[in-house]
Write a structure and sequence with these properties.
The protein is of the alpha+beta class. The chain has 16 helices and 18 strands. The protein is 29% helix and 26% strand. The longest helix has 14 residues.
């Protein structure tokens, strides 16, 4: 089989070789030089570099115009390039999820409308142009969220005290989001009712509409708080049949029929409220914690599903050790321009018996200038294992309550005498 991979996610996050044979298949990775540099040097494949200045679909068309070829599958596991892969499949006549189906699981307005139409509760919402046309007069009161339709990592997400405050910030162009304040991109945003309660994420596999694996976790902190500079994590919790049925209904509503999924919901007054879903694996250490708990490496089985291989009945049995795992991550992007020096308050946790992984930046490392959950980029990322969900939660909250980050300004490079004289 000839397989084209739109390659964006670092290779070690997916480990493609675990899900598809590079000896049996002809695999081509299409990505920027930076992305291609993450491929193992001895991996049997073709590497095709793209500039990365335009969408992957557009740059793939340019490449294929110069070097026409046929593919049996076009795959992307990056949330940012799922639509590019769908458009390329349509252009090449390749099997796989069509553009309208993929868009349903990428656009937060479309997905919430579909889930609501299926009879499940969602936050009340409006596309931003309609919200503005109504002057903030909407069917809800209190905190109001502005967010991009297709955003991730809570970038450019804003919360206002009331709908009217949100509308006023928009009309006076004082939101703090450069595009909105310049009068651009209104069609790319929505306004949404803020629903309070614990936020949970559900991760698993689906093939031909049947959920084959499902894991449930609850966040400590939120993605928005993380974007603002606070640590976050999650801990695994138990599942019941009612929740399994709810997840299946939500996935069916947004037509996620094959591959991995990462679904988020809010528990409000005992009821699950749909927040959003992606047809891809979760970020941070979701993949690792799911594998530790279930024995299933989500990306590997997603690749098998996308290649048309039957997966039902092939999943490994869960490990005998049934501990509850959690992941944790401390941001550094809010301290961009600084060098990491030390993580105060970590000593009692770092070498503890419950720690599975602990990835801390070395002293002197520059802090990232973008939101990232990636070990080796952010201040701290790791995994913990405890006997109960409550123990895992308490360990993570205890860690977060103890940590503080010590930094110093990043060292500037002094120009050489030659540079000065020039």
């Amino acid at each position: 089989m000839k397989i084209l991979v739109l390659h964006r996610v670092p290779y070690f996050k997916i480990e493609y070789h675990r899900g598809m044979s590079h000896d049996r298949h002809e695999v081509t990775y299409f990505g920027t030089d930076r992305a291609l540099a993450t491929l193992p040097p001895d991996l049997r494949c073709e590497r095709v570099s793209r500039p990365g200045t335009r969408p992957a679909f557009d740059e793939a068309l340019d490449w294929l115009a110069q070097q026409p070829r046929h593919f049996d599958r076009v795959i992307s596991v990056s949330e940012y390039e799922l639509l590019d892969a769908a458009r390329l499949r349509k252009h090449l006549g390749v099997a796989g999820a069509p553009v309208d189906q993929v868009a349903l699981a990428r656009d937060k307005v479309l997905m919430k409308q579909a889930v609501q139409d299926a009879g499940l509760r969602v936050p009340r919402f409006l596309p931003l142009p309609r919200f503005l046309a109504q002057g903030g007069q909407v069917p809800w009161h209190g905190p109001t969220v502005l967010k991009p339709h297709r955003g991730a990592s809570s970038e450019d997400v804003l919360v206002f005290g009331t709908p009217q405050q949100a509308a006023a910030a928009l009309t006076t162009r004082r939101t703090g989001v450069a595009g909105l304040d310049a009068g651009r991109g209104l069609d790319d945003f929505e306004a949404e009712e803020f629903v309070s309660g614990p936020i949970r994420h559900y991760d698993g596999l689906v093939q031909r509409g049947e959920v084959l694996l499902l894991s449930a976790s609850e966040y400590v902190g939120t993605c928005l708080q993380y974007a603002q500079g606070s640590p976050m994590g999650s801990f695994q919790i138990a599942l019941d049949d009612r929740t399994r049925a709810w997840v299946s209904r939500a996935l069916a509503a947004v037509r996620i029929e094959d591959g991995s999924f990462h679904l988020e919901a809010i528990v409000h007054e005992g009821e699950l409220v749909f927040l959003e879903v992606g047809n891809r694996v979760g970020g941070a250490d979701v993949v690792a914690t799911v594998e530790l708990a279930t024995g299933v490496h989500l990306p590997s089985y997603e690749l098998r599903i996308l290649l048309g291989e039957p997966v039902a009945g092939t999943l490994p049995a869960p490990p005998a050790d049934r501990r509850r795992y959690g992941w944790f991550v401390h941001p550094g992007h809010h301290l961009a321009g600084q060098e990491f020096q030390a993580l105060e308050g970590a000593a009692a946790f770092r070498a503890g018996p419950r720690v599975v992984t602990w990835n801390e930046l070395p002293p002197g490392a520059p802090l990232p200038d973008h939101i990232t959950y990636q070990a080796g980029e952010t201040v701290l990322a790791g995994i913990v294992a405890c006997d109960t969900p409550e123990d895992t939660r308490d360990w993570i909250t205890g860690l977060f309550g103890s940590l503080s980050v010590r930094t110093r300004p990043a060292a500037s490079i002094s120009p050489s005498p030659e540079q000065v004289s020039a």
